[in-house]
Each structure stands twice: as C-alpha cells, then as structure tokens.
Amino acid sequence: MTRTRPRTPPRRLPPAARALALPAAALLLAAGCGIKPTGVVESGAPAKMPMAVPNDNALVYYLTPDDRLAPSTVPYAAPSPGGALARLLAGPTQQERSAGLRTAVPVVDTGAATEVRVLQSNSAIIEVVLPFAVAELPDLARRQLVCTALSSQPSHYEAALRGSDTLLEAAPCITSRP
After folding, report:
1. What separation in angstroms does the CA of 160 have from each of 21, 58, 119?
2. CA triple 84-70-67, angle to 5 deg
3. CA-CA 20 to 30 A from 20: which of 36, 42, 49, 91?
C-alpha cells in the first residue's frame, strides 16, 4: 500500500511583499521589451512625383522653407500661363505665407504684373517677357518663373526669360535642387 503525503497549503507572501511584487513585475515587463528609446530620425526629402496638369490650369510655384519649389494649391482668377505669372509676381497670399511659402521673385505692383506676356512659337520654347531685369535674378527666382510659365505646357517645353536687360537661355522646369 502506498502512502500519500498530506497536502500542505502553498506558502503565501506576506502582504508587504505582495504590495512590492506587483509594481516590480510590471516594471520588469515594461523594461524588458529590448527596444531602446531614440530621438527623431531624419529620413530625407519627401518623394518626388511628376504631376500631370491639364492645359487650362497653370500652377504658381513658390518656395518652401527649405528652398524647394512647390506648386500652390490656392486658386486664383486667371488660370493661364500669363495669369499664373502675374499671380507669382504679386507674391504669396496670406494663406500661402501661413503655410510657409515664400518667393525669390521680385514682387511688383498689379499694373506691372499685368504687363507680363507669354509668347509661343512653333517650337517647344516659350518666351516670358517680364517688366524687370532678369540677368541678376537668383537661380531660385529663375526656376520659379520658368516652372510657373511651363506648368500648363507639355513636359518637353522650355521657357526663356526676357527682361528689361537681356534674354536668358531657354530652360526646362527643375523643381528639385540642382
């Protein structure tokens, strides 16, 4: 005959030890995941994607805080190459400035902005006639003007800027930093 031992009740922790054990176990579980905290990790510039723009909706290109060209989404009255350029020459609206957009193009009064002309020949080059000198314009200003003028043109077109001082060589729209 086999003898069975009498069962002994399990040992219980004293109440003070139990009060400390629960928070300690939670702390160990939370700290035991193995992932160390990090700061913000920079991952580079946003992706670039070509956009198809209908020919009747010219875009106005402004500068972001990090000097990238970005089309404005604020609607304006005359969606044509000339209208878009006049809008660019008027400078960003309050809404665009609040969004961090700015311009490197000289801001001119409304009368001078309406003098802007866009001439198109049979080739894939348009000529933009502006009411100010263009030879000393910074590269960002030139790119803003060219991209705004070309925003409603086929992608293979180029724009030449003509100011009161000279005619600059035709260039394509380049929205990213060269």
Report:
1. 77, 17, 10
2. 120
3. 36
What's the whole-model pTM score? 0.67
Residues 6 or more apart in contact with residue 149 via CB below 8 angstroms: 81, 84, 85, 118, 126, 128, 159
Rounded to whole angstroms, how far apart are CA atoms 154 and 15? 80
> Strand 158-162 and strand 61-63: pairing?
unpaired
**SS3 call for 168:** coil
CA atoms within 13 A on the CB side of 140: 15
pLDDT in tens, 89-130: 999 999 999 999 999 999 888 777 778 888 987 789 999 999
* pLDDT for res 114: 75
Nearest residue to 160 via CA among 113, 117, 126: 126
Number of residues written out for the chain: 178
- DSSP-derived secondary structure for 107-129: P--HHHHTT-EEEE-SSSEEEEE
Helix (H) or strand (E) holding 69: strand 69-71
Read off the pLDDT of residues 18-58 as tens digits, 9 standing for 90 and up. 666 666 666 655 555 566 666 666 665 554 444 444 445 68
Cβ atoms 159, 125 nearer than 8 A: yes
Summarize the chain as % helix, strand, coil (round to 5). 25, 15, 60
